[in-house]
């Protein structure tokens, strides 16, 4: 159900949110929420967002920590995408310009959202080649942490990889399958998405690299993924769909694909297979 504009303006942060008790942050979230609510449903014309000095500082603080980690740990397709999108470590991207650049690469668009979406709605956007994108930034007191997706997660985590045709197609096929998925099939799709596009690792010639957005947008999670604390397993579709995960702590199991093309070559036919159909 849609909330009214008045409700959207009065943003209530979940208990424990780092911005709780900061009236300036809450007011800014309300203003951005109103801006997102004013966009037409498919986000075909995206408003320009003027980021404040405080928000720019948050972006810089995160990127200061992430840039070196990306050099060492990010997949080559991701690093190439980061350059192609003209992303800057010193200022947040304007969603309209980011969307336009992304569109030119793989036809993927951005749809502005105001927080976590229902799983089916989220996946339906991916199936239609639209990446849901929040516009607010995490609270400045905790550049290392956000309890919800923010612009860092979307723009730094997801957008660069979407410039890669195979990654874009992987997003699309997982998203597209959700349209007619049963509850069990939806759970399988969400796990597949989680262990690939959110937290996936890929074996490259130079060594193991990260391509998942949850890793690439977090300066805590990214080095953790390469530490001894994590059980890194070979990509195994049947194991993934049985593997539970938690949103609220560092991952202790990750899956490694030989390449994005190889993952796609397994996932695409599986979604048309009898095994997948039997989950209905
Ligand atoms: Fe994500």
CATH superfamily: Aromatic amino acid hydroxylase
Q: Please identify the structural class as seen in this structure.
A: alpha/beta
- What is the CATH-assigned architecture? Orthogonal Bundle
Q: Please state roughly what percent of the residues sit in beta strands, choosing from under 5%, 5-15%, 15-25%, 25-35%, 35-45% or over 45%.
A: 5-15%
Mean pLDDT: 93
Question: Which fold name is given in CATH as the topology?
Answer: Phenylalanine Hydroxylase
Integer count of domains: 1
Rg over alpha carbons: 18 Å
Write the layout of secondary structure elements.
Blueprint: H1 5-9, H2 23-37, H3 53-73, H4 76-84, H5 95-106, E1 109-113, H6 119-127, E2 130-134, H7 151-158, H8 165-177, H9 183-198, E3 201-204, E4 207-210, H10 213-216, H11 221-225, E5 231-234, H12 237-240, E6 253-257, H13 260-270, H14 274-277
Parallel strand pairs: 1-2, 3-6, 5-6
Antiparallel strand pairs: 3-4
Helix pairs in contact: 6-8, 8-9, 8-13
The structure holds fe (ii) ion (FE2).
What would a concise description of this structure say?
Helix content is 49%, strand content 10%. With 280 residues, it is of the alpha/beta class.
